Structure formats: C-alpha cells, structure tokens
Amino acid sequence: MKDLFLRKGADYRLRGGHLWVYSNEIDSARSPLGGFAAGDLVTVRNTNDRLLGSAYMEPHSLICARVYAPGEQRAMDVEYFVTRLRSALALRESAFDKPFYRLVYGDSDTLPGLVVDRFGDILVVQLNNSALERHRETLLEALIATLAPGGVLLRADSRSRREQGLPTDSEVVYGTVPQQVALEENGVHFLAPVYEGQKTGWFYDHRLSRARLAPWVGGRNVLDVYSYIGGWGVQAAAFGAATVCCVDSSAQALEGVQANARLNRLEDRVTTRRGSAPELMAAMQAEGQLYDVLILDPPAFIQRRKDLKKGIAAYRRVNELGLQLLQPGGLLVSASCSMHLSRADLVGVVQQAAVRAACQVRVVEQGAQGADHPIHPAIPETEYLKALFVRRL
Predict the structure, then answer these.
(1) Is the pTM of this model over 0.90?
(2) Over 90: is that where the pLDDT of 195 sits?
(3) Which residue, 10, 101, 233, 358, shows the most beta carbons closer than 10 Å to its own?
(4) Looking at 20, 38, 70, which one is the last position of a domain?
(5) Which of 352, 356, 355, 350 minimizes the C-alpha distance to 391?
(6) Residues 46 and 106 placed together within one structural domain of the fold
(7) How many CB atoms lie within 10 A of CB 62?
C-alpha cells in the first residue's frame, strides 16, 4: 500500500472521526495525485508520518480518498469485509425482528460507497465507486460467508457509477433472484421490483414514520402523492383507512401499488391516479376533492447544494397544493430525502406553504431514518431523511 500524505494541519477532520480526504488536503509534493489510480489502497499519513488510517483512492474526485479502516493499516480482504458485515448485521438484528432492512449504509457502517438491502435471503447490492468494483469478488465472498444468501443482485445503475464511467448493467452475481422479492414492513406485506424499481426496489428508510400513520388514518380518506409502489398508501389502508388514492407518474409503480394492495386483500380500498403530482393535485382541487390525510414523499428535489433555492421553491409548491386538499383538522405528512434540505428548512417550507394556502398549521410529530440508516456523528451527510406530521387547524 502506498502512502498518501496530508499537508500540514489537514489531518484535523480525520482525527475527529471523519472518513473523507479532499484533494486540496494532499501534500502534492510527497504524494502527487497523478501517481494513484481509482481504487488504489493507501495508508493516509499526516505531515509527521502519523498513521491516520487506510483508504481507497478516487484521485480525480474532490473527495479523493475515503477511509475504510480508521487508525490502522489494513487490507481490503475477506476478513475486513466479514468483520464489518458482522458488525452491521448485529446492529440490525438488535433493532428488527425480521430480516428486512438496509444491511449496509456506506460510511455509517465504515464501508464507504457500499449499500446492501436485505429482503430475507435475497441481497440487493450497490457498489458506488471504483475501489469496491475492484474488490467485488472479495466482498461477494464475505457476503456469502456471513449471510448465506439465496441470491445476490448487483444494481449498477446508480448516478455515481455513471459519473465515474463504471459499468451500469445490473446482474445476478450469486444464486437466483426473482423479478419481485417479498418483504414485510410494520406487519404489511409487499413485493419489490428489485431489477427495475427505484434504487434497490424499496425504501426502508421511512419505516418508522410509516408505522406512525396508524393512529391517524383509521376511517379516514387518504391521498398518497409520489406513492411509488405504495409503501405509505398500502400501509395506511392496512391500518384502517377508509379509502386511499395513490398518485404517481409511473404506470409501473402504480401497477405495483395495485399488486401490493391485492397481496394484503385491500384492493377494494386502494385506487390509483397517474400523472404529474402538481398537475393532479391542482386538478383535484378544481374538482373540489378534500382528504383527511395527505402524504407527500417526493423524490429529492435538491440533488446538489447549488439547487437549494430552486428545490425549496418546489417543496413549497407541492406542500401548498397538499394543504389546499386537506380538510380542516386534517393531517399532512411532509417528507424530504434531500440531504441539503435541513429539518429547519422543511419546517420553514411548510409554514410558507401554509401562509400561501391561507391556513394555520402545527407540527405534531416528526420522523427520521431508522436504525438501519445510522448517522455517523462526524459526517452530517449521513443524516438526510425528514418527515413532519402537520395538522391543519
């Protein structure tokens, strides 16, 4: 392993527990970035040669190295992966009684760039950088040794892989994986389209907030906007909602809603409407429709910090439309998965939307990511998920 030297004073973040090395922190005289290839393993050292940890290189990126073994020199071998995977598994098994969760959440599990979602004995894996791609077979060996899965699907269609020029064809790398895999969340059953669905086919991150729907939806009329395959809406019906309408722009996603409603024998209470969410909500308002509970869980409107102003305007617009579709005394669940949008920003968005909708609101509950998406205290980027339960007065 080559040495990667930091310039004087540039080691303070790593000593504080962070795992990223930026290109402007490198002592380019002692370790020029041109001497490294993507995926090379290095030992990171400060200007006094003190070992800070082992990392893999992404020399052409702003974050040019990611530490995978803080404070030690360690190969990225089977033993390393097994140790990390066992630690991640122990956390999930402590928090969840069934094997349906995000097993690996990147930096928070000291496995930078790796995402593994578990669906019983099926694993869906995302390798989001060159280092993990170079060590794919070693990682696969460790996954098999640790979990003995029935199948492993590599989802290779992430934006980060495209930006790095990595192959983007998904493939089964071990065993067999069906087109639809079963999972259970909060006692409700689902089928997730792991080959062609969004991300890994399912979003485990809102599990806790979806469970909190139960006290609010009994006997109520519910609108689930940006529904995907019904994670919120089908659970609302299972928790006793009188009617649920799921809105999404994807015909395939709405087919998933209907399939999951049938799976839980809820098809008589779950309907769907396809189209642009803002356009459909405006049309519903014109039709005079009102709902008791409205769920807004849009995709990330803010992908990069430079998109913050435009993204806040988009969040404000859909929340205003949502409030206009609520009965007085109704509940708005406003969610965001945009890491660059703070919780305080989301609260501000909802208040601005309320002013525009000429109503008053109060935040009565708040939700966040669960134990399978742990937050690294030194890396605020690992905290991204927000959900506000907002009552319209």
Answers:
(1) yes
(2) yes
(3) 233
(4) 70
(5) 350
(6) no
(7) 9
